[in-house]
């Protein structure tokens, strides 16, 4: 398995990970930015080892492991760890400008938190991703 690139095409998935059919029952396809953003979305909702791909050293394994933070104590250490996890995973994608990645976190209760990720695609387009946890699940929009 490899990460989705900027020229790839994939089956478009709904928010539950199910293929989206067109009026004829065929799968809708996505390409370009929609395709690689879908891959980032899937990876953010995946734990390492949950899917097949992992490099020999385990450094570039697919999956963000955000479920590790579902009930984490939300202190300064939490903010540093989740930021390092998300930024580290995003830097492995060659079409993301590594220096443009920024992340802010918000905490509301012990189990609920949100993170806002901003980055610039290598062609200069700004991209935003919102991640939130209700203490039971991770949501990515």
Mean pLDDT: 90
Largest sheet entry: 4 strands, antiparallel
Q: What percentage of residues falls in helices of 4 or more residues?
A: 10-25%
Supply the helix-strand structural class: alpha+beta
Strand order of the largest sheet: 3-4-5-6
Listing every helix as H and every strand as E from the N terminus to the C terminus, the arrangement reads EEHHEEEE
User: Per the principal axes of the C-alpha atoms, what is the gross shape?
Assistant: globular
Number of beta strands: 6
In the predicted model, the low-confidence regions spanning at least 5 consecutive residues are none
Number of helices: 2
Alpha carbon gyration radius: 16 Å
Strand content of the residues, in percent? 15-25%
Please, could you describe this protein's structure?
- The structure is a single chain.
- This protein is α+β, with helices and mostly antiparallel strands and 141 residues long.
- The strands form 2 sheets. It has a 4-stranded antiparallel β-sheet with strand order 3-4-5-6, with helices on one face.
Question: What's the gist of this structure?
Answer:
With 141 residues, the protein is of the alpha+beta class. It is built from 2 helices and 6 strands; from the N terminus they run E-E-H-H-E-E-E-E.
Tag the structure with descriptive keywords:
141 residues, alpha+beta, two-stranded antiparallel sheet, 2 helices, 6 strands, 20% helix
